[in-house]
Amino acid sequence: MQRREFFKVVAGVGAVIVAPSLITTDLRADDGRLYKTYNKVQLVDAKGNPILASKLLEEENYIFNYPYVGVSSFLIALPEKTETDVTLKSESGEEYIWKGGIGKKGNIVAYSSICSHQMTHVHKNESFISYQKKGQKTMACKQTGVMVCGSHLSAYDANKGCKVISGPAPQPLASIVLEHHDDDTLWAVGVLGSDKFHEFFKAFKSELKEQYGGARKAKKKVKETAQVVTLAEFTKDIIQY
Rieske domain: from which residue to which, for each copy (predicted)? Predict the structure, then answer.
């Protein structure tokens, strides 16, 4: 089993190494990591078959709902190995460490779709936020191969933990922490960084009722499995600038 995220919690003169799926609360450790565990969930396709890391198409926008039923997240196999041990900072000034991509190539990443500026997110009718391929020009910045929110042209570096490159976004997208097992399966286990989940549920009650039958249902934590589809299958209209 490959576990890309491990956390050292300093306690007195000793140190304890803790796997992500064993942490049950927010972790703000002395070594600068901000993490919260959720249910350990296997990523599967529409037929319930396990998603295999080696079968993901590079630079395809995949979507799965995690850690809550009403919160969509991106899954992306980048065209190259990501940076590692990237220091990021939340809007409130807390620093944390993004360890990098997973998989044999170290190129698989996952991020919450909720933009940290004004919570633009993937909607079933349209999506203003997505990963834009290398070589695909964007109005948000000169760099390509980035996550872009078309609402106000915030750009995030998917290769560096979705660090903000340009635009009004005040912090990186929250990272979904993944595990890659020896059988090539993928599992979501938690969220790294400062998320916008509380504000999201409060701001989009009517939308959540329309899409998921109410905020209460949308707030249920995903259990056991999360279905992965392409962004084109999830939403009717992909809007990119």
Answer: 103-187
